[in-house]
Amino acid sequence: MRSSVLVTVGRASAVLLALLIAATLSAEAASPVVMLTLSKDESYFHKAYDDYSDLDGDGVVERSYDDRLDYDGYFHPHLCYSYSDSNQRFEPAGRTDPSAHRHYCLVTQSDKFSGNFLNWATMTRMDLVRRALYGGKRVIDTTALTVLERAHLPSDVHSFAKYYNGADLPHLTPFDLRKTDTVNGGNNNGYDDADEGITLCNVSFDGTSAFSHTTNVAPVLRIVLGSRLLWAGNERWQCTWESEHGDNQNSNSPVQSGLDAVSSDPPDTFRLPTAAGNADRVVRVIACDPTYFDASDNLEHCRAYPAGNRKPAGLLQEYGEDGALRFGLVSGSWAKNLSGGVLRKNAGTINDEIAVASNGSFLAAPANGGIIAFLETLRVWGYQYSDGTYFPSADNCGFQSGPITEGTCRAWGNPLSEMYLETLRYLAGEVAPSFPANDQLSFANLPSVTWQDAVQVSDPPASLNIVVLNASPPTNDNDQTASTLFGGEAISTTIYRDAGGSHTC
């Protein structure tokens, strides 16, 4: 029995649903095999909540933060967080108001951020993939403490700004900057001015000549007074202060755009700093804090371990630690960004990646490859911070005015059908890859994985399943998919988008 599910990554619920479908496909004697097939291109590193989607299916597009919704992410929607300058992270500091608005921090918590609001403001698509699969990217992973970190975002268009000026701003953030006017219902002149509300910008800023694939800077959140919705819409550098790269311009004309947003980078005087005066807040957060754990409201998916602690977990832990499913992974590559897919892990146990018998921490990547280790390495390739472009990088990526070639513009390229075909070949018992690629890169020490049979001859019959996770329209996937790879039988695999917006394999 073989089946396939394709997930277009936008909300974690879609990923969870797809994997749960795979998890219940059979109840055979042998544990089913679930091969994850993952696109690799730069589209994962965009905001998770785009403000032009209908998140709750009511026919109305959510244009901004909507407190009626639970936004998924690394922050617990029903906790309030304070920012610790000394530890450079957000830390749980109380529960939200249990009354009508479960995401509001109480008025007495005037220095707190709502976790739900922070999820809307900071999460990327990659964060939701990591969270759904294994609980999130960990930068501190001990028995006593787990700290998660937002994905790395170069200071180009992958950085993103969020503007908010709702009347409930004081319940969601430490700021109350909504201008009041009793004549016009509390919003001065009925629309958002440049000196109303706050703008939050997500970036991983590096002031050196480092590349996005070599820098070790932390991901940060920058907050400024007023409407700077286009702070991440400049010609080159995004989410920068005026003192960093000069007064960058996005050339906004409110008359033409309808956005009354400032057209330049904010000066330092407009910063809304931390309590210690720091301009940036590092987007790291303590997860599964025992002080605030509530089994009846376990939205962080905290999982207990023999050491007596809890760790944020995903579907790899839920269905892999007890052997209910055997997981493997095929993904795109950097070396052959326009061709096929590469096996990252043979189908098998997940317990060689997680300290299941002790505290649930992540282990070093095993010799036969690792799903978690691979996903932790993913980031945008080739952006140089000092130049603000991809021109000087090793892969010679220009403006992409024409087709790109293999090995250039390595952050791009999504031959999804070919990745899917390679996964089918693996499950069919083929022993050699069609698209071997060496990804021994400066930021990703990824060993070559030797193909092993997904199902041994001695195994009882088991279902073979593929879950495809994709973040962008497929590209370069119609030139190498028709092959005589299955005992002389020709196969052609295509992926398309139907009128309803879904994808089909």
Gyration radius over CA: 23 Å
The helix count comes to: 9
Number of strands: 21
Give the class from helix and strand content and strand pairing: alpha+beta
**Largest sheet geometry:** 5 strands, mixed
Q: What is the distance, rounded to the nearest whole angstrom, between the alpha carbons of the first and last residues?
A: 16 Å
Q: For the largest beta sheet, what order do the strands appear in spatially?
A: 1-17-2-15-16
Helix-residue proportion: 10-25%
State the shape.
Answer: globular
Provide a descriptive summary of the structure in words:
The model is unreliable at 181-186 and 490-505 (pLDDT under 50). The chain is an alpha+beta fold and 505 residues long. It has helices spanning 12-23, 115-122, 125-134, 169-172, 242-245, 254-257, 315-320, 371-377, 416-427; strands at residues 2-8, 33-38, 79-84, 89-95, 113-114, 138-141, 146-149, 160-164, 198-203, 220-225, 280-282, 284-286, 302-304, 310-312, 326-331, 342-348, 464-470, 483-486, 489-491, 496-497, 503-504. The strands form 7 sheets. The protein has a 5-stranded mixed β-sheet, with helices on both faces. The protein is 13% helix and 19% strand. The longest helix is centred in the first third of the chain and has 12 residues, at 12-23. The protein is built from 9 helices and 21 strands.
